[in-house]
Specification:
Layout (H helix, E strand, L loop, with lengths): L1 H16 L11 H14 L3 H14 L7 H31 L6 H8 L21 H11 L1 H9 L1 H16 L8 H17 L11 H15 L2 H28 L7 H28 L6 H25 L1 H8 L4
Helix pairs in contact: 1-2, 1-3, 1-12, 3-9, 4-6, 6-9, 7-9, 8-9, 10-11, 12-13, 13-14
Length: 330
């Protein structure tokens, strides 16, 4: 089931980051609505769901907390997360410094707590390769997993606490609206389910898409002051819909594992985005094409296609490098 949602979720992440394409934005309400639906209502579902799945997989076979279990997990995640993280941040740093200057302190921060420079997606907590803040947070959570494990062992107590924290996140109570706490919450929810080997597959029901569409419509027509709150319900209903769709695809036998390609696109797309965005803008201005949502789709398609082509070339020319860059994912 998890294999079925890897690539679609990565595409959702790309929708988020492609939003920062000035020529795609106009004063027309319909144009902006199309972009916002994809970059916000679709893209926002991806991050919490990724953390849930990551926590589920990490704790699935960890019913008993032992030193051996912990060290084996850290060893395997060092190869699948830490090494690719360091390599991609280094690649992003090299690409970035071609056109910008960075101090030694900036370089160190770019691998750890994050930096904020022009032409970089994300805020001051984004590392050199912006989307990999997720990998950084995930690896830190895995390092402190023994403490999370002890907490999750108390079934009812941890369920109540996680439920309260989820409600706090749902109604946007600080600090549950910050990335660190969002990471911890959804990783722990996934861990709670994985520790008890719960089935996270959701059988298809007609009301999952109906709920999602309803909340998206409410988000679209509501006053700005209420949109952030409604977006939380869009995320929850969207996660249910994605899991239900994945279950439907698995039942139909239409599943291929694009794990390595998905991670490559996730890590590479943000590095390429400034160049793709610049190329699309140049073409639109040269050909005197009015800027609109079509430029947004061009950026998404071109960025995605370039990532696939580069991945295929690296896979053919230097397969060992491909393994390191993707953490040996299947």
């Amino acid at each position: 089931m998890i294999k079925a949602i890897r690539l679609p979720l990565i595409l959702g992440i790309l929708f988020i980051h492609a939003n920062n394409t000035p020529i795609a934005h106009t004063v027309e309400r319909g144009n902006e609505l199309v972009i916002m639906l994809l970059s916000t209502c679709v893209g926002s579902v991806c991050v919490p769901l990724y953390f849930i799945i990551s926590g589920f997989l990490f704790f699935y076979n960890g019913q008993v907390l032992t030193k051996e279990w912990y060290l084996n997990k850290i060893k395997s995640r060092s190869f699948s997360l830490l090494i690719p993280y360091l390599l991609w941040c280094t690649i992003a740093l090299i690409v970035f410094t071609i056109n910008h200057s960075a101090s030694v302190i900036d370089m160190i921060k770019g691998y750890t707590i994050g930096v904020s420079f022009p032409d970089m997606n994300g805020g001051a907590t984004s590392v050199w390769d912006g989307p990999l803040w997720f990998v950084r947070n995930l690896f830190v959570l895995m390092l402190i997993s023994p403490a999370i494990h002890v907490f999750l062992r108390y079934k009812k107590f941890s369920a109540v606490i996680l439920g309260l924290l989820f409600i706090a996140w749902l109604v946007i109570v600080s600090p549950m609206d910050h990335g660190v706490f969002i990471s911890l919450l959804f990783f722990s929810i996934g861990g709670w389910l994985g520790l008890r080997q719960q089935d996270i597959t959701i059988k298809w029901k007609w009301y999952y898409p109906a709920l999602y569409v309803m909340f998206v419509i409410l988000w679209c027509i509501s006053p700005v002051d209420y949109q952030d709150y409604l977006l939380q319900f869009v995320k929850v209903s969207g996660m249910l819909l994605v899991l239900a769709l994945a279950c439907l695809f698995v039942a139909g036998g239409h599943v291929k594992d694009y794990g390595a390609l998905s991670f490559f696109i996730f890590a590479c797309h943000d590095i390429l985005l400034p160049f793709v965005r610049g190329g699309v803008t140049f073409c639109y201005e040269t050909l005197q094409i009015p800027g609109n949502a079509s430029a947004y789709f061009c950026v998404v398609i071109m960025d995605f296609a370039l990532c696939v082509v580069i991945y295929k070339l690296i896979n053919i020319l230097t397969p060992k490098l491909s393994i390191l860059l993707t953490g040996s994912r299947g």
